[in-house]
Amino acid sequence: MSNPSAAIELRSVVRLLTDENGDQAKYWVPSYQRGYRWNKIQVFQLLDDIWEFIQAGDGRPKSSFYCLQPLVVKKMNDGRYEVVDGQQRLTTIHIILSYLKDIVAILDRSNFQIDYETRDATFLHDIDLDRAGENVDFYHIGEAWRAVEEWVSKHSRPHALKLIQHLLNDDEIGQNVKVIWYELTLEDDAVAAFTRLNVGKIPLTEAELIRALFLRRAAKDDLTGSLQLRIAYQWDRIEHSLQDDAFWYFLQNSGTTTNRIGLIFNLASELWNRPDVGDDHSAFSHFADALQGEGTAEKNWKKINDIFLALEEWYEDRYLYHVIGLVLHHSPRSEMEIGALLTDSRQSSKRDFRAGLRKRILRLIFDKRGELSTDEIRQEVDEQCRMVSYTKLQKARKLLLLFNIATLLENEKSNIRFQFDSFKKDTWDIEHIRSVSGERPDNPSAQKAWLQHCLAYLRTDNAAEAAELAKAISQFLDEDATRADDLTFEKIDGAILIYFKEAQEGGDNALSNLTLLDSRTNRGYKNSVFAVKRDILLKNDQAGTFVPLCTRNVFLKCYSSAVGNVTFWTKDDAKAYFNAICRTLTKFMVSSEVV
After folding, report:
1. pTM (2 d.p.)
2. 501 pLDDT band (50/70/90 cuts)?
């Protein structure tokens, strides 16, 4: 909806009171809009939010302000403004100023006027609670009036004065309340805009507001239109790139299908030290200020584009993609981490930047800070890997994910990349490689599901023992068949463990018996024997389900020096797997490779 010709700015509430000639401002609400519908809670929330902002005034910079949602208007031929979006907020401000009109008068101000195409405006301009029951519009206006009355009664009169002083502060620098003023052009269709914003429930995003700021400033700075076209082209390229989930989930841990470009503006606000970064519309307010002067469009857009190009460079560099992707995955506030990384990359050499990334991983995964020698890193990796168990799932996930990343980076000639998008869109379990005796299914439905997985595998085995065991399982699962008294789940379970050589020594909870697996696959064959797990996982891999490289390697027994029978997971296999984890993590953490 953003229109480069539309007027868009931050406008203090006091500027809503008068038009450009200094006369009383008049707003007109057309018939396509519903009436006023805010309730007491919404009015309380607005007043409380403004009051909280006022109370924190001493701790805020002078330029800070409380920002209301956009007010979308269109100038009419008679000088009035047609209210396209924001009627509820505008009316609430009118009610607040009406209730405290004596204070407003002391400040030598007067309220603005609101008229309606099909409704009576006299009640709003002279609220009489005795008439509040006459229709639904009067009722809600009356309730809002009572809410203001109740809020003021809970505070002192000086507090009410302070509220109005901030609400009507005409200092354009800040310490007041502002709205995002979005004025459509005469050519814009107000009804279509209203439909988009209200009926379709597609509000103006902050990105659209910022786009309008840039294009409007560019039109003033360059009359040829070439700057506008360049910004519009690069904007579309950035938006298109960020819609690629592979790129987006490299940077972020959660998905959003709209306004992904907002990430770039949030980063810009953070890098340029906005004190209110993180507040609603903080990025917009930053650019509303930054684009005030002549020639500011190209300068500020270059900063935006430079941020995107840096992120794109990280994404295209295979080493940086994996290491930065890992860092951001483990960062509780990825935007702040990206900002810090951007700063580091600009202030450091390529070699130092990459060394700094490994230090971040050492801190995030191993909880170690400062420089460690090769021997200290080797010892730390070995100790932490030995300490990890199935009871420490978060630590196990971190180490196993790092193992996957480090394994991929061992082969510099490979073009395989870890799928952060597939990984982050799914939920992941830490799965036992070899079954654990204490986790056998304990209810009939789970037992049947477990046996069905085993049966499916045994039917592919040509051994006579497998056929005999499959026959016993089939009899147990057939509810209509006559079943021998001693044919119990426990007996069949024991026979299965003997056949797959998992009876004598059950798998343990150490890292050497753990791997990453998506929750759907894991819970589908919960605690099956190794051979069954292997069969299901490889079929999923062939079908296109994302299986982490090291998980696939485990079930292919790639870490075992002597493969032997691929259907069993032995102590030697577990030992070789554990040693591979320690060796790979140590090599990655001490690596001096920076090219």
Report:
1. 0.71
2. low
